[in-house]
Amino acid sequence: MIPKFGAIATLIPSSVLGGAMLVMFGMVGAQGIKMLSKVELNNKNLLIIAISVGLGLGVTTQPALFQYLPATVQVIMSNGMVVGSFTAVILNILLNHTRLQKNSRGIVNKLGHPLACLLKFLY
Q1: CA nearest 80: which of 103, 105, 53, 106?
Q2: CA angle, 40 then 41 then 43, to 5°
Q3: Is the pLDDT of residue 84 over 80?
Q4: Which stretches of 1-123 are DSSP H helices?
Q5: Which sign does the torsion angle of CA 61, 65, 71, 72 carry?
Q6: Mind listing the pLDDT tens digit for each residue in 40-73?
Q7: Which residues are CB-neighbours of 106 under 8 A, at least 6 positions away?
Q8: Distance CA 15, CA 3 (A)
Q9: Total-model pTM
Q10: In whole angstroms, what is the distance from residue 113 CA to residue 110 CA?
């Protein structure tokens, strides 16, 4: 059954597939811009966006960057989307994370950066 669908897909002209891909990737880009428009673009968030996009593009344009790492790590790190997304998540946790805590009167206190909270807890 599936080879029949594959045969039908090969009949679609490449220009039609190119047009469909253009619309598809355009919609993905537009949704990304729409999501970023809802984010408060302060200095921390701009730094996160800049570093994530820069590392993602850098890995894509310089594939030999990880040539001395083990093959399993190369497979993961050679994809710019993976590197950019991972960088954005890590930087967002490090730069924007604040813990909220309710006290006995229901007042919410910001505890601040997670590393600072850990240091307060340890010392």
Answers
A1: 53
A2: 125
A3: yes
A4: 2-10, 14-37, 43-61, 71-77, 80-96, 114-122
A5: negative
A6: 888 888 999 999 999 999 988 888 888 888 988 8
A7: none
A8: 22
A9: 0.61
A10: 9
